[in-house]
# Entry
Amino acid sequence: MLILGFDTATAACTVALVEDGRLLAELTVVSPRVHSARLLPLIAQVFQEAGRDRRELAAVAAGVGPGSFTGLRIGLSAAKALAFALGIPCVPVSTLAAIAAGLPSGSGLVAPLLDAKRGEVYTALYQVEPAGDEPAAAPGLTEMVPPRLVPLGAWLEELDRLRNGASVFLAGDAVPAEVPEWAVPVPHGLRLPRGWAVAALAARAVAAGQTVAPEALAPVYLRRSEAEVLWDRRHGAQPAM
# Structure
């Protein structure tokens, strides 16, 4: 089963092809504000590198956030267009889950932290179990706390209560320079989502029948855009509860 996976919710534009637990090709460019120019060429290049054809795809998987609003629109538009053209389903994958799944094999608690500005982070908490023997097999993920938007300081205090004495690995682009003694910052090169993790998590979802039609693929923002907030202020609308 050939799966194309990509994520554009962070500074990383990352694309991968995975087949039956094997990573065939992966390309990543870490640079904000270039996703619109780089995503489609990267998709074409991974097929070329793997020597495969798009018509072989079983599904297209896209990171649905939370993260950059613009980046998410770029990625989801590409996923929908490709899935529509090929007549195949899409698989929504949490960007936070992809970060946790993309860390080196092992087990433990992982709290991805993505910068949401204003002193807040997009985050979640996962219990990660070791992956299988295949190099691109998805690890076991148990969602302990679902994706949320929260002030960083308050979240670190809550993590200290939730961890039950265990260490917590911190990944993402909002890991603070100074962390509590129970926290383990992931090396910088491993903090952003990986295309292979998106594809690997999607492969598990496809096997379980958890796909969506292209038109149903939707982003997970967790916060209203600045444009929406300004519109409501100018037109006297009451904020959504």
